[in-house]
């Protein structure tokens, strides 16, 4: 009784129409909305989603909305065919081929960027300087322009493997507008002195409006203030020199 009472109150009616498809469904209907099914013209389901447990919402278009929907889709398909210079039935294949070509090109660009970063790293290796008296520790802190994060990581790995242990490397770059990438790599000899890359790089990254961390021997970080990167790298170098000089004296 409560359900029918609520239905009548919501629809301001005392009687409801019941529409039944035998063996399939029986539904309450507030009344017919067309005088003839021809008025519906076409019917197209455009979305379906779950809105609650066991309840799904289906959205569809019919009548004039159906015609507008079909015309819009037809317009976009013709535009795609014209742009891609293919027939409608060939659009999917063409798009898949373009995506594959894009993936291949991106991989090639990534490989070239990594090679360029390694070349820069090989030149930077000669700039490493030593600190400490009882034990010489090699230190290298450098800016690598617009090198992306992955290539910066590869460069740091190359340098830390090229420099004799103990060594500490910190690299920074601006891979894009409003982006900062930082990497810290320490050899086992530096880690044994009690200095961890993960803990060291965090405060440096904060100067660039970011943060990060990682393992004792290798850590990455990011930031949003490229204008502060030079000062951050200077801070990293001064702190490394101070700490390592004390540890190796």
Characterise the protein shown here:
The chain is of the alpha+beta class. It is built from 7 helices and 10 strands. The strands form 3 sheets. Strands 5-6-7-8-10-9 form a 6-stranded mixed beta sheet, sandwiched between helices. A two-stranded antiparallel ribbon has the order 1-2. Helix 3 runs parallel beside helix 4 and helix 6 runs antiparallel to helix 7. The longest helix has 34 residues. It is elongated and about 100 Å long. The N and C termini lie far apart (90 Å). The model has no long low-confidence stretch (mean pLDDT 88).
Q: Tell me the total number of β-strands.
A: 10
- Strand fraction band? 15-25%
Order of strands in the sheet with the most strands? 5-6-7-8-10-9
Task: State the shape.
Answer: elongated
- H/E element order: HEEEEHHEEHEEHHEEH
> What Rg is obtained from the alpha carbons, in whole angstroms?
33 Å
Content-based structural category: alpha+beta
Uncertain residue segments: none
**Largest sheet properties:** 6 strands, mixed
Cα-to-Cα separation, first versus last residue: 90 Å
Q: What's the number of helices?
A: 7
Mean pLDDT: 88
Which percent range fits the helix content? 40-55%
Sequence-ordered SSE layout with sheet pairings:
Elements: H1 2-11, E1 17-21, E2 25-29, E3 43-52, E4 55-62, H2 64-84, H3 91-124, E5 129-131, E6 137-143, H4 149-162, E7 167-173, E8 180-186, H5 188-191, H6 197-206, E9 211-214, E10 218-223, H7 229-247
Parallel strand pairs: 6-7
Antiparallel strand pairs: 1-2, 3-4, 5-6, 7-8, 8-10, 9-10
Helix pairs in contact: 3-4, 6-7
């Amino acid at each position: 009784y409560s359900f029918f009472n609520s239905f009548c109150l919501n629809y301001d009616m005392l009687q409801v129409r019941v529409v039944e498809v035998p063996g399939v469904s029986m539904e309450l209907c507030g009344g017919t909305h067309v005088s003839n099914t021809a008025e519906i013209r076409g019917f197209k389901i455009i979305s379906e989603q779950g809105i609650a447990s066991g309840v799904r919402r289906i959205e569809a278009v019919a009548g004039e909305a159906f015609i507008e929907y079909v015309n819009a889709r037809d317009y976009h398909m013709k535009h795609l065919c014209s742009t891609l210079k293919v027939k409608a039935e060939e659009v999917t294949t063409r798009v898949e081929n373009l995506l594959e070509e894009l993936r291949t090109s991106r991989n090639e660009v990534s490989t070239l960027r990594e090679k360029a970063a390694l070349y820069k790293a090989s030149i930077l290796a000669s700039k490493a300087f030593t600190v400490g008296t009882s034990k010489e520790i090699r230190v290298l802190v450098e800016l690598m322009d617009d090198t992306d994060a992955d290539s910066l990581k590869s460069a740091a790995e190359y340098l830390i493997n090229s420099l004799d242990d103990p060594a500490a490397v910190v690299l920074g770059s601006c891979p894009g507008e409003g982006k900062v990438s930082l990497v810290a790599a320490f050899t086992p000899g530096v880690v044994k002195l009690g200095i961890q890359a993960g803990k060291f790089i965090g405060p440096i990254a904060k100067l660039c409006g970011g943060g990060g961390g990682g393992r004792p021997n290798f850590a990455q970080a990011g930031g949003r203030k490229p204008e502060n990167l030079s000062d951050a790298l200077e801070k990293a170098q001064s702190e490394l020199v101070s700490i390592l000089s004390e540890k190796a004296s």
